[in-house]
DNA sequence: CCGTAAGTTGACTATCGGTCCACTTTACGG
DNA sequence: CCGTAAAGTGGACCGATAGTCAACTTACGG
């Protein structure tokens, strides 16, 4: 899928990601400059851009990393996250897991969701969806459809995920209200998928 | 509440707001620079800042304007938006109206929801909520609580509003999927507030 | 070893939000 | 009317920051 990196490149890549995580624990993504990241990783700014292309690319990649465990859990792990449990249980487990991942990553997802297209050219495309978002959306959508094929599973999945894009909710999570959100989502799902 | 503006100031204020709306119809808020706004309104950049304080202030004020009609409708208008109808009907009518307002205003709300605190100082407060958001949140929260005092109305209201913060959903709205979203929200509310 | 492709770097550019202050316009009391 | 002070105006300027680039360094297969 991708050429292996040279030893120094791999080292720097890891250092940059680690430094970004580090900075992320103490600041909102919007306040972290690429220069800060480069400095914290002990590399030149150019290196950061060479590897990740852009600010969004870096955040994007970091998110990918953070989401990997969950991805594995739902595809090859045991129920209720993995296959085997009924859709409703899987959905509830998944939403709980997503809330947990997002809570641990503050505004990362939110920052990702907000990117402007490139140059000044009249590129007006809605911007490609983030792979992690796509994966999560597909999973929710599939589970909902399985149990309630009469609903608009696609839109419903977007609505559920919107939750973790919302700044007020992110703030609530930061205050430790993760379980409140969890219970609320549970109530919503239960309303839609009884039993 | 506020001193009346001088004639020229009022004229320019209106021109700036109108120019911003104009630009907003053809671009995402993030790509509109204050310089563009100033140019489009035929005023100096300084004037824009003098009147609105900041980029956020301008967007903020514009949103306020856009939300005014809805505000009036729910406080003094006829049912089902205004008082008189049962909570469920009022909530459904309100959500439909919100979707409609947001659909007509693209990412305005989304752009508002995303602001970083000020200077470099370690000001880490969660940032004050937008008045329009607060008003909408309070309204939803009250209606939910009236019918289902057992639920976490506060969090639930955040979840409903998160919907209009989400970029994928905003894109869907732009594609004319407003009624799909509307139906989906209706399903969610119905699941929670049956009858 | 050596050639070379990959990687590194920080000075440089472009852009943009926001500030500042000298200048202009308006409102209004006399 | 007119003089004046308060309000408003505008654009040069500043600091920050995402992203570029061309010269330089390094890893590594043969």
From TrEMBL, chains A, B:
InterPro entries: Homeodomain-like_sf, HTH-type_TetR-like_transc_reg, HTH_TetR, Tet_transcr_reg_TetR-rel_C_sf. Residues 33-52 bind DNA. One of its GO terms (molecular function) is DNA-binding transcription factor activity. Gene3D superfamilies: Tetracycline Repressor, domain 2 (1.10.357.10). The keyword Cell membrane does not apply. SUPFAM superfamilies: Homeodomain-like, Tetracyclin repressor-like, C-terminal domain. The keyword Hydrolase does not apply. It holds the Pfam family TetR_N. This is DNA-binding transcriptional regulator, AcrR family. It comes from Paractinoplanes atraurantiacus.
């Amino acid at each position: 899928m991708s050429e292996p990196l040279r030893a120094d490149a791999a080292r720097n890549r890891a250092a940059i990601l680690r430094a970004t995580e580090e900075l992320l624990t103490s600041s909102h993504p919007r306040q972290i400059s690429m220069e800060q990241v480069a400095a914290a990783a002990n590399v030149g700014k150019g290196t950061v851009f060479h590897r990740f292309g852009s600010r969004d690319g870096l955040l994007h990649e970091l998110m990918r990393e953070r989401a990997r465990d969950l991805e594995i859990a739902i595809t090859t792990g045991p129920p209720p996250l993995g296959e085997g449990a009924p859709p409703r249980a899987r959905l509830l487990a998944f939403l709980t897991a997503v809330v947990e991942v997002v809570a641990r990553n503050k505004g990362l997802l939110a920052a990702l969701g907000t990117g402007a297209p490139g140059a000044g050219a009249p590129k007006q495309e809605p911007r490609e969806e983030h792979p992690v978002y796509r994966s999560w959306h597909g999973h929710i959508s599939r589970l909902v459809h399985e149990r309630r094929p009469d609903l608009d599973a696609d839109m419903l999945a977007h609505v559920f995920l919107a939750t973790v894009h919302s700044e007020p909710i992110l703030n609530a999570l930061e205050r430790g209200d993760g379980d409140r959100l969890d219970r609320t989502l549970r109530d919503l799902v239960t309303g839609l998928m009884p039993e």
